[in-house]
Write a sequence for this structure.
């Protein structure tokens, strides 16, 4: 299993990041630039969990994953794959927004994925080889959008 763990510092407050992680409205693909609008679908949302479909359109492949989100721990948002054409069932991502004294956040991320197909395995290998660079870049872009969102 490919597993990456990293922390990104930001001036965005943790409660705003958590609100964006749990925003399952139609604007989710606007906040999270790695998500394709045509892949986004909400199946259900409850008090501390949700099941949604997310995905990305990359050259030569449309990645889709039905993900189960859980935020029952107030310090953690975690989602795992229910079904996907890219990742194995059970693969997960977890995000822990840790408050900083300056009002910002140290965003701790654990990314654990296994490619399901040969192409997916190659993509996962390249993400690991770059120490998660594509994920970090997408996350930094999302943090900029979240910072600018006034209603989170």
């Amino acid at each position: 299993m490919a597993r990456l763990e990293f922390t990104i510092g930001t001036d965005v407050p943790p409660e705003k990041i958590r609100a964006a992680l749990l925003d399952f409205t139609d604007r989710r693909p606007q906040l999270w630039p790695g998500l394709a609008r045509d892949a986004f679908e909400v199946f259900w949302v409850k008090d501390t969990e949700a099941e949604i479909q997310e995905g990305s359109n990359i050259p030569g492949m449309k990645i889709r994953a039905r993900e189960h989100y859980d935020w029952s721990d107030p310090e953690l948002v975690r989602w795992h794959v229910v079904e996907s054409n890219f990742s194995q069932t059970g693969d997960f991502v977890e995000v822990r927004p840790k408050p900083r004294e300056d009002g910002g956040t140290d965003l701790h991320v654990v990314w654990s994925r296994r490619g399901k197909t040969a192409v997916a395995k190659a993509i996962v290998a390249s993400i690991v080889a770059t120490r998660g660079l594509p994920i970090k870049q997408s996350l930094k872009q999302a943090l900029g959008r979240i910072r600018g969102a006034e209603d989170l």
